[in-house]
Amino acid sequence: xxxxxxxxxxxxxxxxxxxxxxxxxxxxxxxxxxxTMPEMIRDDVVILAxxxxxxxxxxxxxxLRSLSGVGMVIMVIGLSLxxxxxxxxxxxHLTGSERFLFTLANTSMPIILLTIANSDGVHVxxxxxxELRVKEDTQLAIASTMDSLLIPIFLTSITTIAAFATLxxxxxxxxxxxxxxxxxxxxxxxxxxxxxxxSVISLKRWNPESNAIxxxxxxxxxxxxxxxxxxxxxxxxxxxxxxFVLIGLTGLSKVIVDVNMANFFRPGTEIRDTMDFMxxxxxxxxxxxxxxxGDMKDPKTLSSMRTLQNSxxxxxxxxxxxxxxxxxxxxxxxxxxxxxxxxxxxDKRDKVNNxxxxxxxxxxxxxxxxxxxxxxxxxxxxxxxxxxxxxxIFAYVNEMTEQVKAxxxxxxxxxxxxxxxxxxxxVIMVVRSSALSIIFSLIIIGIIASIFFKRILWGxxxxxxxxxxxxxxxxxxxxxxxxxxxxxxLLSSVIIGVGVDFAIHYISQYRRLSRTVGxxxxxxxxxxxxxxxxxxxxxxxxxxxxxxxxxxxxxxxIGGLMVFAMVSTSIGTLTVLAALxxxxxxRLVKRD
Length: 592
Fold this sequence. Notes:
By secondary structure, this protein is mainly alpha-helical. It contains 20 helices and 4 strands.
């Protein structure tokens, strides 16, 4: 059980360290890695959460210029995080399902919810400040704010939950729990933003004459300039966005898929140093196993197994291999006065049978239990290799599959397994589940937006900035050589889950304001109204940058890519979506 491996690991280390205190010690194996990671993950999450919140608070303070306002946003974030982590614990306690264990894949979960919950809080507080600037009455400002934001906050929550719910379709078990638990956290953030936050705002006495209310912030001034550029030249802006999407499309073919655990850790970390030592000085860290079903006392079967081993060892990454065939060769040499020329498989079945009979008289037949079954009908070839790249793994498994056809008798049932095959299959699952997650998320979001906004065109426009951001992000992963793993594969759902917030808010305000504002001023009014909270949301969500300090390399990649994603989705909404809405405004306003 993975749950108890940390205890097992600690016990082994506590026994070995005092005995071998005068030696340089390296621990290896799956049990050690799995047992060491929980503490690393726990420490990593605590540090990342603190850094992320610090970055977020600083950016919010600079722009909101109100300790109370920032405190209310942090309240929503904190309570949402408690709800998410607490629900994960309770679900695991009640079900016992390992889907709800906090694994490496879940390391990014608190930071992601932190930014989503922040988004809801920022929209409410920034809109309230704008309304209070005009109305100069707290109750009227709250009423106007919630009248404007209740529906978009509900919609963004539903669509974000739907995007993350696609993770439950992943064949990777931890991602099922990821999708369910983060959905609970988002639901609670929606509840808090819609009910608790307005109530708390109404309890405070606000000063309408304070700088936070009367004077525009840095980001508000930036939005004014951006709005002028976008709406003066919408065709040029849209063309520029399309150009970046084309660049991203060409980079998709360059994306490298790599799921090797060794590459998840920085050089210098305990686990990475151990893996490097095992690769460079010992037998390697990746096992390759071949299950052979047939007569394990037949000389032809044993000889073909030995020939296959020789073929396996021709690869420079493969260090060694062994099977029951090696044991038979060694026993044959021993009974022939240790003559090296007899270190071969005997040519007759009776001789092989005699060797096993002789061994059973003086040794324990169970010594062979890891190499052959009790009835000598199934044998196992085990090889160890250094870390291979994904490309090398596919080439090696394909080559060995061809060797089996050429060497082994057709009556034998031969199957490849071991970590190398698991890594190969994991690569296929990562690519497939990522593609399905993206497609299903976009379809679900498009359908939900079409139903609520009563227009298929609005549904299409809602997914335009998201699709563009996904293409650009994965394209740039290809250009910069960032590997796609089952951890970085979360990026697609994260981009869609967070980015849909911006598109829904823009569309919702566009439809609302189209009832009272003329078409000539509509787009500019929408950008002025919704642009500030979108940019502030994206800016404060640079808390994703905290992931850059993770001990896990894929999480570092997610950190960098998410900073880029927040920029691309927010700017994409305020440029590409705004430009499209401006170009199509006659059709959009006429029908609405």
